[in-house]
Amino acid sequence: MYDVITIGETMLRFTPIGGLRWEQAEQLQVHIGGSESNTAIGLARLGHRVAWLSRLNDNAWGRKIANTIAYHGVDTRQVVWTNQDRIGTYYYEEAGEPRGNQVLYDRAGSAFSNFSFEQLPVEMFEPGAAKWLHFTGISLGLGETCRGLIHRAVQLAKAAGWKISFDVNYRGKLWSAQEASQTCLPYLELADVVFLPIRDARLLWDIQYDNVELERDPRSESSRVASSMYDVMSGSLAKRSKESALVMTLGSQGACAMRGGSFWFAPTTAVPSVGRLGGGDSFTAGFLSGLLRSDDLESALHWGNAAARLKYSIPGDIPFFSLSEVEKLVHGVSGQQPFR
Known about the structure:
Number of domains: 1
Number of strands: 14
CATH class: Alpha Beta
Structural class: alpha/beta
Largest sheet: 8 strands, mixed
Order of helices and strands: EEEHEEHEEEEHHEHEHHEEEHHH
Helix content: 25-40%
Strand content: 15-25%
CATH superfamily: Ribokinase
CATH architecture: 3-Layer(aba) Sandwich
Oligomer: single chain
Strand order of the largest sheet: 4-1-9-10-11-12-13-14
């Protein structure tokens, strides 16, 4: 029995060495990166039983992706292998202000984008085989074939009595905000937990939120952020998500959740970013881990914050953290005290 099964595409990521620009680079570092596999790895490293579903090319690059994910304790035995299509890739140029980091996708016609629902290993979707199915809006943005795949997977999971976790995770390079809004909206109602970064709420559903200025007293700031976010989440978003637990991440200000009219907020502490990629996926992994442990949304928010903070200190896409490290942050050993 798995705690969580994730489904999604993982790509090869190429990054110039030494902070060079693409046109300067003569050498590239190779990483693997995928939102759903990042979350799966985070959950596995936090002690949970996890499987990752995807479709990969049966070649050296495909095996590198599967073997890297399996190294962290994630079950990859149900990956669908193919000799057609290709492995998706992306190029990441690291930069500070005023340029900012740059991403270039090269994923059209990838093995996962042609993963049809007929190829889904339906034998996995049995009652009691897993507790949760997790997916993201990235898969929905890859075209009609992937949308059919995700729709079928959600149908099978719900029929088997599993819970559904959906991370909106909007990518403007994949599709328009209007198309994403229309496509993601039904899943806000179908999912048991919906993860929604505040930036995605603004872009997709025109949710307005004014950042609260930092003050010397973090409790004063936290109270003002919590009050502001309660007003935001109890409005149109609550109507859209209905009985789902809606989890909204606010970057360095923390995260909040609402379900059935009840509201929780957990502040965090900003940290220097060594490895920004995968921070949101780590939050998702930490949150789901906390929820699996206690089914308490406030506790889960603190677990998500702790996992995200740790990932920001780790280069690459993969969350190379341990359960003990996350627990120390959750329980305040490192100096962060839970807000009450």
